[in-house]
Amino acid sequence: MKPQDFKDFASVAKHEKYDRVPFTEVKSLLFKLDAPKMLSYKTAFSEDWIAKKILERKLTRHQIQNSLHFKVAEPAIAKPSQGLSPAKKADIRSMLKSMPAGDKEFMSNLVRH
């Protein structure tokens, strides 16, 4: 996956009214890009979709004209991992002999690179 495949839905969620949806009972959620103010859900897989308006923010004239182009921002990209320090790799290598087979294989691959 590419960084642009990840979206920052937390920033959008700050403006929405999620208390209108019973999340403890929800089985399936549906968010449509062409209806960004609505959230549809099912509380049973056999029932029809229930749609609730979750965004009360009034749109400007420009936003109304571009409502089909609703954008969800990309999150700030985290710094790449520095990997394990040489001391940590040495500690893991010293413990390999006492690890279960599955863990040993994973950890040996981890310290190899």
UniProtKB/TrEMBL annotation:
This is (salmon louse) hypothetical protein. The lineage of its organism: Eukaryota, Metazoa, Ecdysozoa, Arthropoda, Crustacea.
